[in-house]
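QA checklist item 7 of 12: single-chain prediction sanity check.
[x] sequence parsed
[x] length recorded as 199
[x] structure emitted
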Amino acid sequence: MNRITKKYTRRDLVTICQRVIENMENNPAFPTPPAALAELKKVLPELRTALVNAEGRDKQMVSIKNDKKANALALLQELSEYVTVICKGDRTLMLSSGFDVTSESRSNITPSIEKLEVETGEAGVATIRTRKVTGVKAYIHQYTTESPGLNTVWVQEGSSQGSHTFQGLSSDKRHWFRVVAIGYDKQKAYSPIVSKVIQ
């Protein structure tokens, strides 16, 4: 699903505010914009002035700038929610509002793990590794000491990496390992299960 980008740099914020005002005013796609649009139009010159005044790093001026920025962000948030409801995921319509829209390609990729490598080293240690998987937000590294079935309880640790080292495993005992890849829209992909006897 297409989403409006809600992270703005200091420079982007003024540009986005200006663009949203210009694109949403008298736009037939948004016939009843919330009062936040008129308020944003009023706040924008004040924000510009506050940004310039804060460049000297005067504490009071920086505080005023932060207040104006927070106000502008709150108004943009209200407007983005209105646009999201009106557009119902239509990317072109969303872009006509002046907001930036995140790419939908990333969230449509379903992760897939074709291979899992397990390396055993010193006693009680095993490292599991997958090749880089596209469309992954996080990994869950798992092992069990019983032959996997429907009711298997897996010991697990989360990570942003495709490799992980387990320590303190039972020596001279067979372990089963797998990795679960979590996609951006909560899709899950399981690696093949690999078993090893731990040293």
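[x] summary fact logged: The chain has two domains: 10-95, 110-197.
[ ] second reviewer sign-off
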